[in-house]
Amino acid sequence: MFLDSFPMLTLMMLAPIVGSLVILMINHKDQDIADRNIRSVALLTTITVFVMSIFLWVGFDNNTADFQFVEKHDWIGDSISYYIGVDGISVLFVVLTAFLMPIVVLSSWEAIATRVKEYMIAFLILETLMIGVFSALDIFLFYVFFEGGLIPMYLLIGVWGGANRIYASFKFFLYTLLGSVLMLVAVLYMYMQAGTTDIPVLMNYDFAPGVQTWLWLAFFASFAVKMPMWPVHTWLPDAHVQAPTGGSVILAGVLLKMGGYGFLRFSLPMFPDATHEFAWLVFALSIIAIIYTSLVALVQEDIKKLIAYSSVAHMGFVTIGIFVLNPNGIEGAIFTMLSHGVVSGALFLTVGVIYDRLHTREISRYGGLANNMKMYAVIFVLFSMASIGLPGTSGFIGEFLVLNGSFAYNSWIAFFAAFGVILGAAYMLYLVRRLIYGPLDKDDVKAMPDLSLREKIIFAPLVAVVLWMGIYPNSFLDPLHATVENLIETRFSNNVGHAAQDVTPDAAVGR
Hints:
Number of strands: 2
Number of helices: 25
Helix content: over 70%
Structural class: mainly alpha
Distance between the termini: 27 Å
Shape: globular
Strand order of the largest sheet: 1-2
């Protein structure tokens, strides 16, 4: 097929760099004209990357677990290569990244009025690095992209964030960097032990059980912070509250998914014995995260903080799904990550809409928005229902599959996860009641206009995707089947219980 030999992934990573260079050269004596041109170039660049990602998705062969669209060239000597490609898991995360970026640019059109050039360049560079994380097939190349993404996000929070942005940006940077230092040590050891940096080779390499324990813990230190898992989650609420709206969208929509992706790409296939050994630890931390952060979300007075804590709870579902090691659980975890990327990004955008009008995120300052912002109210309620997991929305499919897979593994794990679903409904419905319903008795809230045309254009694709994923999930599940089944069969077929193996995606979601 033509697309197999076409350097699609390289072009997708180069396009934002080219867009950044074009933006860098834009100058005009009228700053308003210059800023408008900068925004236009950034939007055109991100739309171009998204169109290429659609070709990548359409051209992907769902019937094989092999990596596709592979490119490999020597980079540093004979050891480290520019080696990229996608399988059924990573292709969907590439599409998610490319989908959210034009929306982020549009959402920043009016909200960002200072240093517009630097802001757009930072986001375009971040897009290159995020796509690189999901497509890297060389472990050193992955590490470069994985850590490189810290820099533009650090700048986005530190330069365009809120009043306490310096504290939040340093906390974000130090937490995530510290966790990754141990991963670098593990990467160096793996190279010396296996004699290769190729991820596909390392995924099938049999490290000694004792070695696997230490390597698994080193990678866990990085991925747990990135997701983030309890108790290393405290950087996330601060980062979200201080970040600009676009930064929160990408942080929740893509960057948090790198931890879950890391578990799937490295921890499970490379260290299967250690994965079994430490599954109990993951389940314990995940259950605590789901219940504890849901309770914390219930008492929040800042809308962004509430949504940030809900993200930690949702990531608890993801880690449970990944480590039950059956098709339903793993596919449900991936689907949950994709859904959360869209839904949480949309919720942060809804917060940005009212913040731009009233310049406060305090829940108590609002109320009765259904009376004067009817379109906004409909959209906010829809995304809130998707976050809860209402059938017909994207949130339901992922949670159902995770609960199905976890019940096959252990009914108690499923019980606590299901209790988390109830708590999730509690804090989101409480937020909806206080924000959308009730009397409209504040004059400044009465004066708030409904969604503008630009804002409707921003939310339209997000609404469409949330409903599409909820009504026809197989279009997102089909690319996963071969890759997930291959992972389980090659690395866990001798260890997973029969009950877990018997519950297949076909039984849970009709084909």
